[in-house]
Amino acid sequence: MSLPLAFTGHDLDRDDHTRADPARLAAMRARDDARMLVLDGLMPRFTEDGLAVSDLGGVGPEDELVYLGLRDGTPLFVSVPEQGDLRQAVSMRETMMALLQMPAKELALFGGARSIADWHARHRFCAQCGGATQIAKGGWQRNCLSCEASHFPRVDPVAIMLVEHDGALLVGRGRGWPDRSYSALAGFVEPGESIEEGVAREVFEEVGVKVRDVTYIASQPWPFPSQLMIGCHSFAEGRDLTIDETEIEDARWFTRAEVEDAMANGQDAASFVPPPRTAIAHYLLQHWLEKTA
Q: What residue stretches are annotated with the Nudix hydrolase domain (predicted)?
């Protein structure tokens, strides 16, 4: 595919050996060239050179920092904010507009940093006993100070799928989305469920369509707050829809020509407004057009 996936392709050495070694980690934090990614809460800040970074001069020994790894040999950290952010990406208009302007590597770096910083901000207390937790392993773990339980960054698997029938695609729109915007159907994979089973269940629950021959296409980390989007393709057994309006606002079948119009013309398309370039749904639609050309 000629189109790269947003939030992938960072240039970090995650340097896992340093994470697990307190002495090496302290040495990294003490280096004169150590840098910290500057976020405004969980929003990115920019300079002419890309994402804003600073030295660690104003960071105290008790401040929570996550060690992201080495970037061109330089230790890079991100600070844990006071609060996390549970809003859906569709409501973060300012953030999403900013992300569209970022180079791919910068976008991938920001996405990972945002996810881990947000997780720490929302997990300062133990899920087992309610006691306070403290940062561990360079920020890739939290340990409870009371019951000593260990907690690890959460990643939620989400199946996002193209549904095809006789050369047309089924796409839907959620409540509160911008006018005329449509995207691939999606839903969380539940415990005890394979990806293929999750795809079939979600499509049937949302639109009443049975699908078969589920195949994997690509995956994308999505930092709002921390999901792994698992892109799939499936074939529908029919086109009759029974829309669950508690899940989605609308769903429609679009011909290949209409999908091509949407991807070529964006906001000015006559058919529908496609998902933004930062979303894997955009990639999936482009992949389908190239595959069926």
A: 153-276
- Digit-by-digit pLDDT tens for the chain (293 residues) are 556 799 999 999 999 999 999 999 999 999 999 999 998 888 888 888 889 999 998 888 888 999 999 999 999 999 999 988 777 666 666 777 777 778 888 999 999 999 999 999 999 999 999 999 999 999 999 999 999 999 999 999 999 999 999 999 999 999 889 899 999 999 999 999 999 999 999 999 999 999 999 999 999 999 988 999 999 999 999 999 999 999 899 999 999 999 999 999 999 999 999 999 899 999 999 999 999 98
74 & 189 share domain = no
Compute the chain's Rg from CA coordinates: 21
Q: Where are the beta strands (DSSP E) in the chain?
A: 35-37, 39-40, 43-44, 46-47, 50-51, 53-54, 65-71, 74-79, 133-136, 141-144, 150-151, 156-165, 168-173, 185-188, 211-222, 227-236, 250-255
In 3D space, the residue among 39, 44, 36 whose CA is nearest the CA of residue 7 turns out to be: 44
- Beta bridge partners, 75, equal 70
Number of domains in the chain: 2
Its domain, for residue 100, covers 16-122
In a domain, 143, yes or no: no
The residues facing 172 across adjacent strands are 183, 251
Q: Give dist(CA 165, CA 118) in Å, integer.
A: 40
CA distances from 74 to 24, 32, 103, 108, 147 (A): 14, 10, 20, 17, 36
Q: What size, in residues, is the chain?
A: 293
Q: Please check whether residues 171 and 277 belong to one and the same domain.
A: yes
Q: Give the domain-ending residue among 96, 122, 148.
A: 122
Residue 261 and residue 172 in one domain: yes
The span from the CA of 81 to the CA of 100, in Å, is 24
